[in-house]
Amino acid sequence: MPLYYRLEGRMQGGKAFIVLQLSGEVVLTCQRCLGDVACQLDSQSRLLLVPEGEDLPDDELTVYDEDYREEDDFDPIHASRNLDVLELVEDELLLSLPLSPMHEECSVPTGEWLEGPASPFAALGKLQKS
Ligand SMILES: [Zn+2]
Asked: Keyword Mitochondrion on this protein (predicted)?
């Protein structure tokens, strides 16, 4: 099952941002029946590139986004020449996965055990008759 990601650089207010978009489908384990459950992913996050040697600003920063006309969260990271893109994607993937994936309705066969072998008392009754 393919997972798509898209990285886009953007300058804004003299700062460099990376916009990371993720979409696709992942198969997780249902927390109720332990079967496979497919989850749709569709997330977008913004990363602020901070020059190496400078302190990262607080995590909870927001900036006014001129494109979206709204306040938007972003995560600051240190820029480097060898930016590990896959690591970024992996982090974003982990953040966007549901914590407890579940089917809307589990389709596990149930009730089979209700018609299991007869109770030992039934066998005992037979013995007493013979
Ligand atoms: Zn289930």
From this structure: no
32, two tokens:
């109720």
Using DSSP bridges, classify how beta strands 75-78 and 70-73 pair: parallel, antiparallel or unpaired: unpaired
What pLDDT digit, counting tens, does each position of 86-120 carry? 888 888 888 888 889 999 888 765 555 444 555 65
Evaluate if residue 52 carries a pLDDT over 70.
Answer: yes
Give the distance, in angstroms, between the CA of residue 103 and the centroid of all CA atoms in the same chain: 15
Residue 42 Cα to ligand 1 middle (Å): 22
| Count of Cβ atoms closer than 10 Å to residue 15 Cβ | 13
Distance CA 12, CA 75 (A): 15
Amino acid at 40: Q
Q: Could you tell me which residue, 98 or 60, shows the higher pLDDT?
A: 98
d(CA 58, CA 89): 22
CA of 104 to the centre of ligand 1 (A): 7
Cα–Cα distance for residue pair 27/34, rounded to 1 Å: 12
Contact 76, 63 (CB under 8 A): no
74 confidence band (pLDDT: 50, 70, 90): confident
